[in-house]
Every structure is written in C-alpha cells, then in structure tokens.
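Now for a typical sample entry:
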Amino acid sequence: MKDYRFAVEEAVTWIENRLTSVPTTGLILGTGLGSLAESIEIQEVIPYKEIPNFPSSTVESHAGRLLLGTVAGISVLILQGRFHLYEGYSARDVTFPIRVFGRLGVKTLFLSNAAGGLNPAYRRGDLMLISDHINLQGANPLEGQNEDSWGPRFPDMSAPYDPDLLELARSIALSESITLHEGVYVAVPGPNLETRAEYRMLRTLGADAVGMSSVPEVIVARHMSIRLMAISVITDECDPDNLNPVSLQEIIAAADSAGPALRRLFELCMIQTHSS
C-alpha cells in the first residue's frame, strides 16, 4: 500500500505543477463520449503516458488524455478515456486516476459510460441516470490494506450516487426537455458482450443497463468522500428474445448521437452545483 500511495502522490505533484487553480470538479468520459470535451475551454492536454505512474488506455475509442480546463469559469479535470479490468489492469490500477483526483481537491465527480439497455423501455441513444448499481466484476478496489487518510475501512454505500445531484439532473432534464431514464447499472468484467441467458439473468437481478466500467470508480470516489453523479448512454438494446449482433462502430455511433444532450446536461449540472 505504501508503494501505491507514493505512486499516487508522485502523479499528484506532477499534475499540480501544471495547474493554475485548484480543480473542484472531475469528469470521466467513456466509450465514444470523448467529444463531450468540446464544451470545455481547454488549458492543457496531457497524454496519460506522460503522467508518472498513470495507466495507459488500450481501447481504441478512448483517447487516453487528461484535460485541464474550465466550464463557465469552473476549474475541471477531464479523463478522456478510462481504464477497465478487461485490459488486464487491477481494480486499483483502474481507479488510480480517481485517487489522484481526490488528492488534487476534486469534490464532485461526473461520470459517463456506454451501456447496453436491459430495460425493454430503453432505446439506443437514450440516457439513463444511474440511481444504484450492482457489482458483478469480481473485484473491489478497496481490497487489501486500507489507507486511513483516504477513507474508512468500511465505507457506506447506501447512497453512492449523491441524492442532491440526482435531483438536480432530473430537474435540468425536465427543464431542457431531455429524455432521462433512471435505473440500476450492473458492472460485468467484459470484454465480450453477454449471452441471451446472461441478459435474462441480469434483468432478473433488477438491472436496467449493463456495462464494463464505472463501479470501481464510484467505490473509490465514495471512499474519498467525493460526491458523484453518473449517466449511461444506451448504445444497444439487450433484448434476449430479439438480440442482434452489435459492433464497436455502432456503439460509438449511438454514443455520438446522445452527445449533445449529455453535454448540455453535464454542463448545466456543473454550473448549478458550483453556484449553489
């Protein structure tokens, strides 16, 4: 744990030397959602490979860059691409950037991801506000020795997604005429998509959308008392009785189609959160 903590602090110090203000807000952009960064006034673009101890993104739809910038004058840190267990990383590796965000002063985190729609009411290109999650990834980033200065040994997860942020998202979506579902996200290891039988099982468990990320990040964010909100873009419809093969290109296209609405929602949430 000492080596891990040292690695985090080394990355924090390196990034701090490039900051002009303390970032209070973080944003994570998932598969096909890198274009959301277009609404950010970028001050500096840093490839992950330049940051000490940072993992490298191996997924083609993830740019693998840390963006330093502002939204309406709010200092933000943006991960343009994340890391996944299926890339061969450990849960601690996957959440390394969240530890860095927390140590840099981030208090509020906005996450996005691409997900398959399990709820039969969802359609490709829809947005789902994550109200809760199920972790089926078989890994937890808090395993091993706890760093008490970062958070408690047994963090509470009764409300991992901040209730006030959820209400804010609902309110903004209504005022902006943005269709926003709300449901449970289930995280699986990947990288393969699921079988018909697996989709049936996940629906039976109570999941509305399925993906391969986000939950480890949420766990670490809550461990560090970072409040957060997460939204899934439904990129394919996982109806086991009418299942069609889907390609990465189709997933990215669906994410692109939802980009403007998601960008508007995140931007207004950041502004109102900062002003409250």
About this structure: The CA atoms of residues 113 and 178 lie 17 Å apart.
